[in-house]
Amino acid sequence: MPEIAIDRGAAEVTGFSVRDGALLLQGRAVPTVTLTEALTSFLDFLQSLEQPVLLAAHGARRFDKPVDRALIRCSLTRQFQQLGSRFLDTFLLSKALYPRMDSYSQEILFYFIFWLKEKNS
């Protein structure tokens, strides 16, 4: 279950919402697991991959801090560190590749890259 409210924009994009203590997807209740169960499952998945793993996140600097806190809270930091996983920040990469853009939102980048592909076809 989300511990903070789901942003309206995020709810529109993902279809997730919370009502009366239940997590909903497209208005239908979906099962949830504890944070520890979710992180343990994620770590098991990462461990099944060839190491080290490079995790890409748009805004990784903002993304990895909550993940770090969650790992600490669930006493799983050591297990994550043993995997040798690293983060690639696609927001910073986009800014380096296309320094003159007005926005680096994922939506804008999607349309920009689509436009570049069409232009070069």
Low-confidence parts lasting 5 or more residues at pLDDT below 50? none
Structural class call reads alpha+beta
- Label the overall shape: globular
Give the strand content. 5-15%
Reported for the largest beta sheet, the result is:
3 strands, antiparallel
Q: Nearest-angstrom radius of gyration? A: 18 Å
Distance between the termini: 44 Å
Describe the secondary-structure layout.
Blueprint: H1 8-14, E1 16-19, E2 22-25, E3 28-29, H2 35-47, E4 54-57, H3 60-73, H4 77-83, E5 86-89, H5 90-97, H6 106-119
Parallel strand pairs: 4-5
Antiparallel strand pairs: 1-2, 2-3
Structure summary:
With 121 residues, the chain is of the alpha+beta class. 52% of the residues lie in helices and 15% in strands. Strand 2 (22-25) and strand 3 form a beta hairpin.
Describe the structure.
By secondary structure, this protein is of the alpha+beta class. It has two domains: 1-32, no CATH class; 34-119, no CATH class. It contains six helices and five strands, in the order H-E-E-E-H-E-H-H-E-H-H. The strands form two sheets. It has a three-stranded antiparallel beta sheet with strand order 1-2-3. The protein has a two-stranded parallel sheet with strand order 4-5. Strand 1 (16-19) and strand 2 form a beta hairpin.
Question: Characteristics of this structure?
Answer:
single chain, 121 residues, alpha+beta, 2 domains, 3-stranded antiparallel sheet, two-stranded parallel sheet
